[in-house]
Amino acid sequence: MASNDPQDSPVAGDSPEEQQQQQQQQQEEEEEEEEEEEKKTKKESQDESPLSSPVMTSDPSEPGRLALQQTLFQQILNGKLMATQIPPPPKTSKPAVDPNVISSGGSIYQVLDLGCGSAKWCAALAAARPDIAITGVDMSRVLLPARAPPNVALEVEDVRKTPWSRGERSVDFVHVRDMGAAIGGRKGWKKVLGETWRVLKPGGLVEVAEIRPRWWDWKNHVEGSEESDDSQVSEMEGEDWLEKETPDYKVGLAVAKFEKLFHGLGKRAGIDFDSAPKVPEILRDAGFVKVVERTEVLPIGGWAKDEKLRVKGELYLEMLDHGSFENYSMKVFTQAGWKEEDVRNLIDKTSRDFHNPELQGYSTAVFITAKKPSRAA
Ligand SMILES: C[S@@+](CC[C@H](N)C(=O)[O-])C[C@H]1O[C@@H](n2cnc3c(N)ncnc32)[C@H](O)[C@@H]1O
Protein backbone atom coordinates (compact mmCIF):
# COMPACT_ATOMS: atom_id res chain seq x y z
CA MET A 1 0.00 0.00 0.00
CA ALA A 2 1.77 3.08 -1.19
CA SER A 3 2.12 5.88 1.31
CA ASN A 4 0.71 9.29 0.45
CA ASP A 5 2.73 10.90 3.16
CA PRO A 6 4.57 13.82 1.55
CA GLN A 7 7.43 13.14 3.93
CA ASP A 8 8.03 9.92 2.06
CA SER A 9 8.85 11.78 -1.15
CA PRO A 10 12.25 13.27 -1.69
CA VAL A 11 12.27 17.05 -1.30
CA ALA A 12 11.67 18.77 -4.64
CA GLY A 13 14.88 20.10 -6.08
CA ASP A 14 17.21 17.62 -4.36
CA SER A 15 19.90 16.28 -6.62
CA PRO A 16 19.99 12.50 -7.26
CA GLU A 17 23.15 12.30 -5.09
CA GLU A 18 21.40 14.08 -2.23
CA GLN A 19 18.34 11.85 -2.61
CA GLN A 20 20.58 8.79 -2.53
CA GLN A 21 22.33 10.12 0.57
CA GLN A 22 18.97 10.79 2.24
CA GLN A 23 17.76 7.26 1.42
CA GLN A 24 20.97 5.77 2.76
CA GLN A 25 20.72 7.87 5.92
CA GLN A 26 17.07 6.86 6.37
CA GLN A 27 17.98 3.20 5.98
CA GLU A 28 20.83 3.52 8.46
CA GLU A 29 18.50 5.21 10.92
CA GLU A 30 15.91 2.44 10.49
CA GLU A 31 18.56 -0.18 11.10
CA GLU A 32 19.83 1.61 14.20
CA GLU A 33 16.25 1.90 15.48
CA GLU A 34 15.69 -1.78 14.91
CA GLU A 35 18.87 -2.72 16.74
CA GLU A 36 17.96 -0.40 19.60
CA GLU A 37 14.58 -2.10 19.89
CA GLU A 38 16.18 -5.49 19.99
CA LYS A 39 18.52 -4.36 22.77
CA LYS A 40 15.62 -2.82 24.63
CA THR A 41 13.80 -6.11 24.72
CA LYS A 42 17.01 -7.87 25.76
CA LYS A 43 16.49 -10.25 22.88
CA GLU A 44 19.46 -9.52 20.71
CA SER A 45 19.46 -13.00 19.34
CA GLN A 46 16.28 -14.26 17.75
CA ASP A 47 17.15 -17.67 19.09
CA GLU A 48 16.19 -16.38 22.52
CA SER A 49 12.76 -15.18 21.48
CA PRO A 50 10.01 -17.68 22.24
CA LEU A 51 7.83 -16.20 19.52
CA SER A 52 10.38 -16.51 16.77
CA SER A 53 10.83 -20.20 17.43
CA PRO A 54 8.45 -22.35 15.38
CA VAL A 55 5.68 -22.06 17.95
CA MET A 56 3.07 -23.53 15.67
CA THR A 57 5.02 -26.55 14.51
CA SER A 58 3.66 -28.82 17.20
CA ASP A 59 0.14 -27.35 17.21
CA PRO A 60 -2.30 -30.08 16.12
CA SER A 61 -4.10 -27.67 13.79
CA GLU A 62 -0.97 -26.67 11.85
CA PRO A 63 -0.84 -29.55 9.31
CA GLY A 64 -4.44 -28.79 8.32
CA ARG A 65 -3.69 -25.09 7.94
CA LEU A 66 -0.62 -25.83 5.82
CA ALA A 67 -2.69 -28.08 3.54
CA LEU A 68 -5.26 -25.28 3.07
CA GLN A 69 -2.46 -22.80 2.49
CA GLN A 70 -0.88 -24.97 -0.20
CA THR A 71 -4.20 -25.00 -2.12
CA LEU A 72 -4.66 -21.27 -1.55
CA PHE A 73 -1.19 -20.34 -2.83
CA GLN A 74 -1.76 -22.45 -5.94
CA GLN A 75 -5.08 -20.73 -6.55
CA ILE A 76 -3.46 -17.33 -6.16
CA LEU A 77 -0.83 -18.38 -8.71
CA ASN A 78 -3.46 -19.76 -11.13
CA GLY A 79 -2.45 -23.35 -10.50
CA LYS A 80 1.31 -22.71 -10.56
CA LEU A 81 3.61 -23.58 -7.70
CA MET A 82 5.67 -20.40 -7.77
CA ALA A 83 5.92 -17.01 -9.40
CA THR A 84 9.46 -17.82 -10.57
CA GLN A 85 9.90 -19.46 -13.95
CA ILE A 86 12.40 -22.23 -13.69
CA PRO A 87 13.85 -23.78 -16.86
CA PRO A 88 11.54 -26.33 -18.52
CA PRO A 89 12.44 -30.02 -18.41
CA PRO A 90 15.08 -31.06 -20.94
CA LYS A 91 13.69 -32.83 -24.01
CA THR A 92 15.21 -36.12 -22.89
CA SER A 93 13.82 -35.85 -19.36
CA LYS A 94 15.18 -38.42 -16.96
CA PRO A 95 12.80 -40.18 -14.58
CA ALA A 96 12.73 -39.53 -10.83
CA VAL A 97 16.08 -38.98 -9.17
CA ASP A 98 17.42 -41.28 -6.49
CA PRO A 99 17.54 -39.20 -3.25
CA ASN A 100 21.04 -40.48 -2.59
CA VAL A 101 22.37 -38.58 -5.56
CA ILE A 102 20.40 -35.40 -4.94
CA SER A 103 23.18 -33.51 -3.21
CA SER A 104 25.82 -34.61 -5.66
CA GLY A 105 25.02 -31.72 -7.96
CA GLY A 106 25.92 -32.43 -11.55
CA SER A 107 23.49 -31.26 -14.17
CA ILE A 108 20.30 -31.97 -12.22
CA TYR A 109 18.39 -28.77 -11.39
CA GLN A 110 18.66 -28.31 -7.59
CA VAL A 111 15.89 -26.69 -5.53
CA LEU A 112 16.14 -25.81 -1.84
CA ASP A 113 12.95 -25.12 0.15
CA LEU A 114 13.64 -23.32 3.45
CA GLY A 115 11.31 -24.15 6.36
CA CYS A 116 9.47 -26.74 4.29
CA GLY A 117 7.05 -27.75 7.11
CA SER A 118 4.87 -30.64 5.94
CA ALA A 119 6.70 -30.49 2.57
CA LYS A 120 3.45 -30.11 0.59
CA TRP A 121 5.14 -27.69 -1.79
CA CYS A 122 8.16 -30.00 -2.25
CA ALA A 123 5.85 -32.95 -3.00
CA ALA A 124 3.75 -30.99 -5.49
CA LEU A 125 6.84 -29.73 -7.34
CA ALA A 126 8.38 -33.20 -7.27
CA ALA A 127 5.28 -34.64 -8.94
CA ALA A 128 5.21 -31.91 -11.58
CA ARG A 129 8.96 -32.09 -12.25
CA PRO A 130 10.40 -35.57 -11.78
CA ASP A 131 13.55 -34.37 -13.58
CA ILE A 132 14.65 -32.03 -10.77
CA ALA A 133 15.98 -32.60 -7.24
CA ILE A 134 14.33 -30.89 -4.29
CA THR A 135 15.71 -30.59 -0.78
CA GLY A 136 13.35 -29.39 1.94
CA VAL A 137 14.93 -28.23 5.21
CA ASP A 138 13.17 -27.57 8.48
CA MET A 139 14.51 -27.01 11.98
CA SER A 140 11.98 -29.47 13.35
CA ARG A 141 11.03 -33.00 12.37
CA VAL A 142 7.51 -32.63 13.72
CA LEU A 143 5.81 -31.64 10.47
CA LEU A 144 8.12 -33.49 8.08
CA PRO A 145 6.34 -36.42 6.41
CA ALA A 146 7.67 -39.91 7.05
CA ARG A 147 7.89 -40.62 3.32
CA ALA A 148 8.87 -38.35 0.48
CA PRO A 149 8.81 -38.74 -3.32
CA PRO A 150 12.02 -40.17 -4.82
CA ASN A 151 13.30 -36.79 -5.97
CA VAL A 152 12.80 -35.09 -2.58
CA ALA A 153 15.27 -35.14 0.31
CA LEU A 154 14.13 -33.81 3.67
CA GLU A 155 16.70 -32.57 6.17
CA VAL A 156 16.73 -30.99 9.61
CA GLU A 157 18.49 -27.63 9.65
CA ASP A 158 18.02 -24.27 11.37
CA VAL A 159 18.25 -21.66 8.62
CA ARG A 160 19.04 -18.91 11.11
CA LYS A 161 22.29 -20.69 11.88
CA THR A 162 24.96 -20.13 9.27
CA PRO A 163 26.73 -21.49 7.33
CA TRP A 164 24.14 -23.99 6.10
CA SER A 165 25.26 -27.49 5.28
CA ARG A 166 24.84 -26.87 1.54
CA GLY A 167 28.04 -26.04 -0.28
CA GLU A 168 28.50 -22.73 -2.04
CA ARG A 169 27.17 -22.43 -5.60
CA SER A 170 25.32 -25.74 -5.34
CA VAL A 171 21.66 -24.68 -5.71
CA ASP A 172 19.68 -23.38 -8.69
CA PHE A 173 16.56 -22.14 -6.92
CA VAL A 174 15.81 -21.25 -3.28
CA HIS A 175 12.16 -21.10 -2.23
CA VAL A 176 11.09 -19.42 1.04
CA ARG A 177 7.36 -19.42 1.79
CA ASP A 178 5.46 -18.38 4.92
CA MET A 179 8.69 -17.88 6.85
CA GLY A 180 8.30 -14.18 7.76
CA ALA A 181 7.48 -14.77 11.44
CA ALA A 182 10.22 -17.40 11.74
CA ILE A 183 12.88 -15.16 10.19
CA GLY A 184 11.57 -12.24 12.18
CA GLY A 185 12.89 -8.99 10.70
CA ARG A 186 15.56 -7.20 8.68
CA LYS A 187 18.46 -8.75 10.59
CA GLY A 188 17.11 -12.29 10.10
CA TRP A 189 16.35 -11.74 6.40
CA LYS A 190 19.83 -10.31 5.80
CA LYS A 191 21.33 -13.44 7.25
CA VAL A 192 19.06 -15.87 5.39
CA LEU A 193 19.28 -14.06 2.05
CA GLY A 194 23.04 -13.60 2.44
CA GLU A 195 23.38 -17.34 2.90
CA THR A 196 20.99 -17.89 -0.02
CA TRP A 197 23.45 -15.90 -2.15
CA ARG A 198 26.31 -18.14 -1.01
CA VAL A 199 24.58 -21.43 -1.85
CA LEU A 200 23.10 -20.25 -5.16
CA LYS A 201 24.94 -20.90 -8.38
CA PRO A 202 25.59 -17.80 -10.51
CA GLY A 203 22.33 -17.13 -12.35
CA GLY A 204 20.42 -18.91 -9.57
CA LEU A 205 16.96 -17.77 -8.49
CA VAL A 206 15.22 -17.02 -5.21
CA GLU A 207 11.56 -16.54 -4.31
CA VAL A 208 10.05 -15.24 -1.07
CA ALA A 209 6.27 -15.73 -0.76
CA GLU A 210 4.09 -14.44 2.06
CA ILE A 211 0.47 -13.74 2.89
CA ARG A 212 0.86 -10.48 4.78
CA PRO A 213 -0.75 -10.45 8.24
CA ARG A 214 -2.48 -7.14 7.39
CA TRP A 215 -6.17 -6.61 6.80
CA TRP A 216 -7.62 -3.67 4.93
CA ASP A 217 -11.17 -2.57 4.24
CA TRP A 218 -11.85 -2.52 0.49
CA LYS A 219 -15.10 -0.60 0.61
CA ASN A 220 -13.93 2.27 2.72
CA HIS A 221 -10.32 2.03 1.65
CA VAL A 222 -9.40 2.02 5.29
CA GLU A 223 -5.92 0.74 5.70
CA GLY A 224 -4.78 -1.24 8.66
CA SER A 225 -2.01 0.06 10.82
CA GLU A 226 1.25 -0.25 8.94
CA GLU A 227 3.02 1.05 12.00
CA SER A 228 2.25 0.16 15.55
CA ASP A 229 4.60 1.43 18.16
CA ASP A 230 4.88 0.54 21.77
CA SER A 231 3.10 3.63 23.09
CA GLN A 232 0.05 2.87 20.93
CA VAL A 233 -0.03 -0.66 22.27
CA SER A 234 0.25 0.53 25.87
CA GLU A 235 -2.58 3.00 25.25
CA MET A 236 -4.82 0.27 23.87
CA GLU A 237 -3.97 -2.17 26.59
CA GLY A 238 -5.16 0.48 29.06
CA GLU A 239 -8.46 1.01 27.26
CA ASP A 240 -11.49 -1.01 28.17
CA TRP A 241 -12.87 -1.00 24.63
CA LEU A 242 -13.02 -4.75 24.74
CA GLU A 243 -15.47 -4.65 27.58
CA LYS A 244 -18.04 -2.31 26.22
CA GLU A 245 -19.92 -2.64 22.98
CA THR A 246 -20.20 1.09 22.40
CA PRO A 247 -22.92 2.48 20.08
CA ASP A 248 -20.23 3.86 17.79
CA TYR A 249 -18.68 0.41 17.40
CA LYS A 250 -17.92 0.00 13.71
CA VAL A 251 -17.46 -3.13 11.66
CA GLY A 252 -13.75 -3.62 11.26
CA LEU A 253 -12.79 -1.94 14.51
CA ALA A 254 -11.80 -5.22 16.15
CA VAL A 255 -9.71 -6.23 13.14
CA ALA A 256 -7.94 -2.87 13.13
CA LYS A 257 -7.28 -3.05 16.88
CA PHE A 258 -6.19 -6.67 16.68
CA GLU A 259 -3.77 -5.86 13.89
CA LYS A 260 -2.25 -2.90 15.70
CA LEU A 261 -1.80 -4.87 18.92
CA PHE A 262 -0.51 -8.00 17.19
CA HIS A 263 2.23 -6.13 15.35
CA GLY A 264 3.02 -3.91 18.34
CA LEU A 265 3.44 -6.89 20.66
CA GLY A 266 5.58 -8.64 18.04
CA LYS A 267 7.81 -5.58 17.87
CA ARG A 268 8.12 -5.57 21.64
CA ALA A 269 9.33 -9.17 21.45
CA GLY A 270 11.83 -8.22 18.74
CA ILE A 271 9.87 -9.73 15.84
CA ASP A 272 8.54 -8.09 12.73
CA PHE A 273 5.52 -10.18 11.74
CA ASP A 274 5.22 -8.31 8.45
CA SER A 275 8.77 -8.17 7.16
CA ALA A 276 8.05 -9.09 3.51
CA PRO A 277 8.01 -5.43 2.34
CA LYS A 278 11.64 -5.13 3.49
CA VAL A 279 12.79 -8.12 1.42
CA PRO A 280 13.22 -6.42 -2.03
CA GLU A 281 15.64 -3.85 -0.64
CA ILE A 282 17.58 -6.49 1.29
CA LEU A 283 17.86 -8.58 -1.88
CA ARG A 284 19.16 -5.61 -3.89
CA ASP A 285 21.65 -4.72 -1.15
CA ALA A 286 22.91 -8.30 -1.19
CA GLY A 287 23.64 -7.96 -4.93
CA PHE A 288 20.60 -9.74 -6.40
CA VAL A 289 19.25 -8.41 -9.70
CA LYS A 290 15.85 -8.55 -11.43
CA VAL A 291 14.12 -8.08 -8.09
CA VAL A 292 10.41 -8.19 -8.88
CA GLU A 293 7.55 -7.85 -6.40
CA ARG A 294 4.16 -9.26 -7.37
CA THR A 295 1.17 -8.45 -5.15
CA GLU A 296 -2.17 -10.27 -5.32
CA VAL A 297 -5.33 -9.16 -3.54
CA LEU A 298 -6.75 -11.76 -1.19
CA PRO A 299 -10.32 -11.06 -0.01
CA ILE A 300 -11.40 -12.27 3.42
CA GLY A 301 -14.48 -14.39 2.75
CA GLY A 302 -16.71 -14.63 -0.30
CA TRP A 303 -17.71 -10.97 -0.79
CA ALA A 304 -15.94 -10.41 -4.12
CA LYS A 305 -18.06 -10.46 -7.31
CA ASP A 306 -15.22 -11.93 -9.35
CA GLU A 307 -15.56 -15.72 -9.18
CA LYS A 308 -11.84 -16.46 -8.78
CA LEU A 309 -11.46 -13.86 -6.04
CA ARG A 310 -14.56 -15.22 -4.29
CA VAL A 311 -13.16 -18.75 -4.22
CA LYS A 312 -9.78 -17.52 -2.92
CA GLY A 313 -11.50 -15.38 -0.30
CA GLU A 314 -13.57 -18.28 0.98
CA LEU A 315 -10.49 -20.45 1.25
CA TYR A 316 -8.54 -17.70 3.02
CA LEU A 317 -11.35 -17.28 5.56
CA GLU A 318 -11.41 -21.04 6.07
CA MET A 319 -7.69 -20.84 6.80
CA LEU A 320 -8.21 -17.98 9.27
CA ASP A 321 -11.01 -19.95 10.95
CA HIS A 322 -8.72 -22.91 11.24
CA GLY A 323 -7.37 -23.30 14.78
CA SER A 324 -3.89 -22.02 13.97
CA PHE A 325 -4.88 -18.33 13.75
CA GLU A 326 -6.58 -18.52 17.11
CA ASN A 327 -3.85 -20.58 18.74
CA TYR A 328 -1.02 -18.47 17.38
CA SER A 329 -2.72 -15.24 18.47
CA MET A 330 -3.32 -16.75 21.89
CA LYS A 331 0.40 -17.50 22.19
CA VAL A 332 1.48 -14.04 21.05
CA PHE A 333 -0.88 -12.18 23.39
CA THR A 334 -0.54 -14.38 26.48
CA GLN A 335 3.26 -14.42 26.19
CA ALA A 336 3.00 -10.63 26.24
CA GLY A 337 1.12 -10.83 29.54
CA TRP A 338 -2.52 -10.70 28.37
CA LYS A 339 -5.16 -12.68 30.22
CA GLU A 340 -6.53 -15.65 28.26
CA GLU A 341 -10.15 -14.47 28.51
CA ASP A 342 -9.24 -11.04 27.13
CA VAL A 343 -7.44 -12.60 24.20
CA ARG A 344 -10.41 -14.88 23.52
CA ASN A 345 -12.70 -11.88 23.58
CA LEU A 346 -10.47 -10.04 21.11
CA ILE A 347 -10.16 -13.07 18.83
CA ASP A 348 -13.95 -13.64 18.86
CA LYS A 349 -14.64 -10.03 17.90
CA THR A 350 -11.95 -10.09 15.23
CA SER A 351 -13.34 -13.31 13.80
CA ARG A 352 -16.85 -11.85 13.80
CA ASP A 353 -15.54 -8.94 11.74
CA PHE A 354 -13.77 -11.32 9.34
CA HIS A 355 -17.11 -13.04 8.75
CA ASN A 356 -19.11 -9.87 8.29
CA PRO A 357 -19.56 -9.33 4.53
CA GLU A 358 -20.07 -5.62 5.21
CA LEU A 359 -16.40 -5.34 6.04
CA GLN A 360 -15.14 -6.40 2.61
CA GLY A 361 -11.80 -7.04 4.17
CA TYR A 362 -8.75 -8.14 2.27
CA SER A 363 -5.12 -8.97 2.68
CA THR A 364 -2.41 -9.40 0.07
CA ALA A 365 -0.13 -12.21 -0.99
CA VAL A 366 3.31 -11.12 -2.12
CA PHE A 367 5.82 -12.96 -4.26
CA ILE A 368 9.29 -11.47 -4.42
CA THR A 369 11.57 -13.00 -7.02
CA ALA A 370 15.22 -12.27 -7.76
CA LYS A 371 18.31 -13.57 -9.52
CA LYS A 372 21.95 -13.91 -8.54
CA PRO A 373 23.83 -12.34 -11.45
CA SER A 374 25.23 -14.88 -13.88
CA ARG A 375 28.73 -13.44 -13.50
CA ALA A 376 28.62 -13.30 -9.70
CA ALA A 377 31.37 -14.95 -7.72
C1 LIG B 1 4.55 -21.57 8.69
S1 LIG B 1 5.44 -23.01 8.32
C2 LIG B 1 5.66 -22.87 6.55
C3 LIG B 1 5.83 -24.20 5.89
C4 LIG B 1 6.07 -24.16 4.39
N1 LIG B 1 7.11 -23.26 3.99
C5 LIG B 1 4.81 -23.88 3.64
O1 LIG B 1 4.68 -22.80 3.04
O2 LIG B 1 3.94 -24.76 3.63
C6 LIG B 1 7.03 -22.59 8.93
C7 LIG B 1 7.97 -23.74 9.01
O3 LIG B 1 9.28 -23.22 9.20
C8 LIG B 1 9.96 -23.99 10.16
N2 LIG B 1 10.98 -23.12 10.76
C9 LIG B 1 10.79 -22.11 11.62
N3 LIG B 1 11.96 -21.56 11.93
C10 LIG B 1 12.91 -22.22 11.23
C11 LIG B 1 14.31 -22.14 11.13
N4 LIG B 1 14.98 -21.21 11.81
N5 LIG B 1 14.97 -22.99 10.33
C12 LIG B 1 14.31 -23.92 9.62
N6 LIG B 1 12.96 -24.09 9.69
C13 LIG B 1 12.28 -23.23 10.48
C14 LIG B 1 8.88 -24.45 11.12
O4 LIG B 1 9.29 -25.62 11.82
C15 LIG B 1 7.71 -24.69 10.18
O5 LIG B 1 7.68 -26.01 9.71
Automatic annotation (TrEMBL):
<dbReference type="GO" id="GO:0008168">
    <property type="term" value="F:methyltransferase activity"/>
</dbReference>
<dbReference type="InterPro" id="IPR029063">
    <property type="entry name" value="SAM-dependent_MTases_sf"/>
</dbReference>
<protein>
    <submittedName>
        <fullName>Secondary metabolism regulator laeA</fullName>
    </submittedName>
</protein>
<feature type="compositionally biased region" description="Acidic residues">
    <location>
        <begin position="27"/>
        <end position="37"/>
    </location>
</feature>
<dbReference type="InterPro" id="IPR041698">
    <property type="entry name" value="Methyltransf_25"/>
</dbReference>
<feature type="domain" description="Methyltransferase">
    <location>
        <begin position="111"/>
        <end position="204"/>
    </location>
</feature>
<comment type="similarity">
    <text>Belongs to the methyltransferase superfamily. LaeA methyltransferase family.</text>
</comment>
<feature type="region of interest" description="Disordered">
    <location>
        <begin position="1"/>
        <end position="63"/>
    </location>
</feature>
<dbReference type="Pfam" id="PF13649">
    <property type="entry name" value="Methyltransf_25"/>
</dbReference>
<feature type="compositionally biased region" description="Polar residues">
    <location>
        <begin position="48"/>
        <end position="60"/>
    </location>
</feature>
